[in-house]
């Protein structure tokens, strides 16, 4: 019983100082029992850059536009991550480098897991390299970002379309009353060229093999299409115009085919007026009746000529 009580007191002695320090709101690196105390300030600084990147990504999550709005936070975060992986001259109390302590010393490394999530789950999954090229120079802390040419072209065409739209809207983009609806019709007519150029360029890149846009551009284009189709109903107006044109073309085609049919029938009949033949007044063939297949385009003259060439068949004048 005495040994067990001593062990309990010993365990209590190990944890009580930490509890006291926490209650005094002291920093983590003031813990005298922490072997990794000399490395704590680097972890805390890394946490600041990670949290800033997380905050930026969350703020630009609807719609997702991390690449074009958070690239500065991403560069700072990756720069300090690089520095924490090269803390080869700073050691813990057990003589391990702080880089080993932060990334390799324990079964779990929250710093490493968070950094990996920010890199793979946010930056790479958003395909940011398709829109922004970062010339990394981490040893000198001089990494510079630059937008790709296709992203700049898309941005310029987007601004041209938006400038056109602004000319026909008074403050808001939503169609709320009759005046706004009339403005929507003007937008559809006056800004159609800019929209088609924007969408045409986007579609060209989208369908090109091994060439891609980042999620920022894709969501921007999707929102633009929804605005064009669902808010201003430009697609419905274009569909109605196409339907009307299709009806007119179909009607004209039917009229033309009908005219050609009757013209062909008239020409095939030798240009003569047709008369009906009263078969009851024709004498029966002495050799017996037989069926005849008459062409719809055969005229009276053709019938008269065909009967004249047949032997022993009296000729009857038709009326």
Automatic annotation (TrEMBL):
One GO cellular component, as annotated: cytosol
PANTHER family from the UniProt entry: OSTEOPETROSIS ASSOCIATED TRANSMEMBRANE PROTEIN 1, OSTEOPETROSIS-ASSOCIATED TRANSMEMBRANE PROTEIN 1
The keyword Coiled coil belongs to this UniProt entry's keyword annotation: no
Any coiled-coil regions, as ranges: none
Signal peptide: 1-25
Superkingdom in the source lineage: Eukaryota
Record-linked InterPro entries: Osteopetrosis-assoc_TM_1
Keywords: Membrane, Signal, Transmembrane, Transmembrane helix
A Pfam family that the UniProt record links to this protein: OSTMP1
Transmembrane segments: 244-264
Protein name: Osteopetrosis-associated transmembrane protein 1
